[in-house]
Design a protein that fits this description.
By secondary structure, the chain is α+β, with helices and mostly antiparallel strands. It contains two helices and five strands; from the N terminus they run H-E-E-H-E-E-E. The protein has a three-stranded antiparallel sheet with strand order 3-4-5, with no helix packed on it. Strands 1-2 form a two-stranded antiparallel ribbon.
Length: about 90
């Protein structure tokens, strides 16, 4: 039997979890920034997942931090890209 108290508090805890600091701008990336609640509730077939976080922080221009998130909601790797093209259809 699953403990409902733990199950209900887990997303709240993971939203506050510090995942990583962006190596470019040093922005702290928390679970809420990567929408960890959506990852938990999604039907992910395989872990690790790639999460693209487009952001700016302090005086730094917009850039992308690609995080490789495992099933424990921990970042197992990262990449940064300054070259971005967003298209909307």
């Amino acid at each position: 039997m699953v403990n409902n108290t733990i199950t209900q508090k887990l997303p709240e805890f993971l939203n506050r979890k510090l995942i990583r600091f962006c190596p470019t701008c040093l922005k702290p990336i928390y679970g809420a920034d990567i929408e960890v609640h959506r990852l938990i509730n999604s039907d992910v077939n395989r872990w690790q997942v790639n999460f693209v976080h487009y952001h700016t922080y302090n005086q730094f221009p917009k850039h992308v931090l690609i995080l490789y998130i495992d099933s424990d909601m921990s970042a197992r790797g990262q990449e940064v890209s300054d070259f971005i093209k967003l298209e909307e259809k």
